[in-house]
């Protein structure tokens, strides 16, 4: 019994000792695991902190830092990152860290088709993990992957995907070269955390890349924008090598872009801009830059040329890309461009001045009819300065009472009777004398000063007509020109009505002349405006008839009482049989349509006789009267009476 008791005692003591050993081992393992987790958490914080400042310049360094930290932490021989291109279905071995004594494998694996390693990609997609404990024990379907891993000297590895919005954009791998490596579920989850940090870094990089792109590129065409152009030109200027390799700038503007936008819509306008951008890129060399400034304006920055003729040759090439029609709504549309050329430092010593002077040259090309190029010159620059000065003066001309009206009589060519007058705007600028209407009217239209000026002309002319009526002059009509900007103004009808009410002039004594160009893109709104004006008793006439590209269908739709045959045809009488034929056709057409017609710019008796034979008896021109101020006209009327 004593022996049995001793045996039982030994068993109990042994069991208690085992329990104590197990308790201490478990506690030690927990402490080790806790230390492992704490060390990992510390590493995560440090890596996450590093990735907070990731950008395009330091991205490679940040990724390599992550690979080094996790490789060292898990005691691996090699860690790597493969970048995946989902669009092109390829992958590239882009980043790597190797422990001491381990040979690097980065370099040869670039743009590898994903289809070469189907088992690997399938494991990442389905299991969110590739785990190979022993390369020699891989399944048969992984023979391609097994062969590649053996070539790289890998013995055991694990890889986790990096996903952005559910799509695999990369994967991180950890490799053991000399021995098998077992991975617990906890460690796999730790690796997933690293993948999430990498994914967040990629998201931030992508976001920054988009922000940078938007800051330096045109969103519609993808071309560099004004900011990018400015930086590139400034870098070239600051390098101070422009003497050896001078730089030039071509400012390119589509001649008919507004018309395409108006007729086909903005979507087709955008489509045209994309096509133009694509064609311009075929002209630029690798060193050059094609930019879109906005609207239909592009710049080709030529980063170095031998002689100035080279810039002209490039401009010719640009014009040639517009020779082929552009396809819009499945139809061919011919499009041309105007180009201005500036050179550094001849035409400017900074980017903005170069652009400004190239734009001036472009405007000159447009003035000359478009579809051509012009070079910046001293004359153009002086003209631009004069235009700026003239614009500033024009803004104050009304307030300073520098504007006045002259009046040119309209005459019955058979009897010599004055039928009416046309009010013609004049600008008597102090120190300069009378400024030509050809110089300041287009400027007023461009700056929209034509709206207040046009209203002043209308009111002044109507008031003068009423004053003459009260002095006992015959009941003559007063003709006033309305610009296209006035006729399109939403309040034009109310403005005319208010002028008639304020001056007391009856509508039947007012004739409004609109240019033929205002009828080219006529719409229902303009048709309604003309009908409302006619309802007041006002006569509506088309000025410069035959000069623009109007159509008879539009003419039929509009409420027109009279047309004025453009002086360019009248002055061809006796000289150009084509001008005479056009006048004959217009006279016959207007007679059949029962529309009055008047010839303007009549200067010779030959012209008068020719027009009278065609049934045209209303004339306006120097043969009868020049435009004259109020007092002179009153003297003429008094003498006739």
TrEMBL record:
<dbReference type="InterPro" id="IPR043128">
    <property type="entry name" value="Rev_trsase/Diguanyl_cyclase"/>
</dbReference>
<dbReference type="InterPro" id="IPR001633">
    <property type="entry name" value="EAL_dom"/>
</dbReference>
<feature type="domain" description="EAL">
    <location>
        <begin position="387"/>
        <end position="641"/>
    </location>
</feature>
<dbReference type="InterPro" id="IPR052155">
    <property type="entry name" value="Biofilm_reg_signaling"/>
</dbReference>
<dbReference type="InterPro" id="IPR035919">
    <property type="entry name" value="EAL_sf"/>
</dbReference>
<keyword id="KW-0812">Transmembrane</keyword>
<feature type="domain" description="GGDEF">
    <location>
        <begin position="245"/>
        <end position="378"/>
    </location>
</feature>
<dbReference type="InterPro" id="IPR003018">
    <property type="entry name" value="GAF"/>
</dbReference>
<protein>
    <submittedName>
        <fullName>Putative signaling protein</fullName>
    </submittedName>
</protein>
<dbReference type="InterPro" id="IPR029016">
    <property type="entry name" value="GAF-like_dom_sf"/>
</dbReference>
<dbReference type="InterPro" id="IPR029787">
    <property type="entry name" value="Nucleotide_cyclase"/>
</dbReference>
<dbReference type="Pfam" id="PF00563">
    <property type="entry name" value="EAL"/>
</dbReference>
<dbReference type="InterPro" id="IPR000160">
    <property type="entry name" value="GGDEF_dom"/>
</dbReference>
<feature type="transmembrane region" description="Helical">
    <location>
        <begin position="6"/>
        <end position="22"/>
    </location>
</feature>
<dbReference type="Pfam" id="PF00990">
    <property type="entry name" value="GGDEF"/>
</dbReference>
<keyword id="KW-0472">Membrane</keyword>
<dbReference type="Pfam" id="PF01590">
    <property type="entry name" value="GAF"/>
</dbReference>
<keyword id="KW-1133">Transmembrane helix</keyword>
């Amino acid at each position: 019994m004593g022996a049995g008791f001793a045996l039982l005692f030994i068993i109990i003591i042994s069991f208690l000792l085992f329990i104590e050993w197990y308790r201490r081992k478990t506690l030690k393992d927990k402490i080790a695991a806790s230390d492992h987790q704490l060390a990992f958490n510390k590493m995560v914080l440090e890596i996450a902190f590093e990735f907070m400042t990731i950008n395009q310049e330091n991205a490679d360094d940040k990724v390599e830092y992550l690979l080094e930290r996790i490789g060292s932490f898990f005691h691996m021989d090699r860690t790597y990152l493969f970048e995946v291109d989902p669009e092109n279905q390829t992958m590239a071995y882009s980043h790597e860290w190797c422990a001491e004594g381990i040979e690097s494998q980065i370099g040869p694996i670039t743009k590898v088709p994903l289809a070469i390693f189907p088992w690997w990609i399938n494991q990442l997609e389905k299991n969110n993990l590739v785990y190979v404990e022993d390369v020699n024990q891989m399944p048969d379907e992984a023979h391609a992957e097994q062969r590649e891993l053996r070539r790289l000297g890998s013995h055991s590895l694990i890889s986790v995907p990096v996903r952005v919005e559910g799509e695999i954009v990369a994967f991180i791998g950890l490799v053991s070269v000399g021995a098998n490596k077992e991975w617990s579920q906890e460690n796999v989850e730790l690796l997933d955390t690293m993948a999430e940090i990498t994914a967040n870094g990629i998201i931030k990089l992508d976001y920054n890349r988009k922000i940078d792109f938007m800051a330096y590129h045109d969103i519609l065409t993808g071309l560099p924008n004004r900011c990018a152009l400015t930086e590139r030109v400034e870098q070239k200027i600051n390098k101070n090598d422009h003497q050896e390799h001078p730089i030039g700038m071509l400012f390119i503007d589509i001649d008919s872009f507004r018309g395409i936008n108006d007729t086909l819509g903005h979507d087709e306008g955008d489509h045209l801009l994309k096509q133009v951008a694509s064609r311009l890129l075929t002209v630029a060399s690798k060193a050059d830059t094609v930019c879109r400034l906005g609207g239909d304006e592009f710049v080709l920055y030529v980063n170095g040329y031998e002689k100035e003729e080279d810039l002209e040759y490039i401009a010719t090439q640009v014009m040639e890309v517009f020779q082929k029609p552009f396809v819009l709504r499945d139809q061919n549309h011919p499009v041309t461009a105007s180009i201005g050329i500036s050179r550094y430092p001849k035409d400017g010593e900074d980017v903005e001045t170069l652009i400004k002077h190239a734009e001036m040259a472009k405007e000159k090309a447009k003035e000359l009819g478009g579809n051509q190029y012009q070079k910046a010159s001293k004359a153009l620059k002086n003209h631009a300065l004069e235009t700026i000065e003239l614009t500033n003066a024009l803004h104050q001309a009304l307030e300073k009472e520098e504007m006045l009206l002259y009046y040119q009589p309209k005459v019955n060519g058979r009897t010599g009777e004055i039928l009416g007058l046309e009010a013609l705007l004049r600008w008597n600028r102090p120190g300069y004398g009378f400024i030509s209407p050809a110089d300041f009217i287009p400027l007023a239209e461009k700056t929209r000063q034509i709206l207040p000026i046009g209203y002043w002309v209308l009111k002044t002319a109507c008031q003068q007509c009423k004053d003459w009526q009260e002095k006992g002059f015959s009941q003559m009509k007063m003709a006033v020109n309305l610009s296209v900007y006035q006729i399109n103004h939403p309040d034009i009808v109310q403005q005319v009505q208010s002028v008639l009410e304020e001056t007391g002039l009856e509508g039947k004594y007012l004739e409004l002349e609109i240019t033929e160009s205002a009828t080219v893109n006529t719409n229902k709104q303009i048709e309604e405006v003309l009908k409302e004006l006619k309802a007041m008793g006002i006569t509506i006439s088309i000025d410069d008839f035959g000069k623009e590209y109007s159509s008879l269908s539009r003419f039929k739709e509009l409420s027109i009482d009279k047309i004025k045959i453009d002086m360019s045809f009248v002055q061809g009488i006796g000289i150009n049989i084509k001008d005479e034929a056009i006048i004959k056709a217009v006279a016959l057409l207007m007679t059949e349509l029962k529309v009055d017609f008047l010839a303007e710019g009549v200067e010779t008796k030959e012209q008068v006789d020719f027009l009278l034979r065609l049934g045209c008896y209303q004339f306006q021109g120097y043969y009868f009267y020049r435009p004259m101020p109020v007092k002179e006209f009153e003297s003429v009327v008094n003498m006739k009476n």
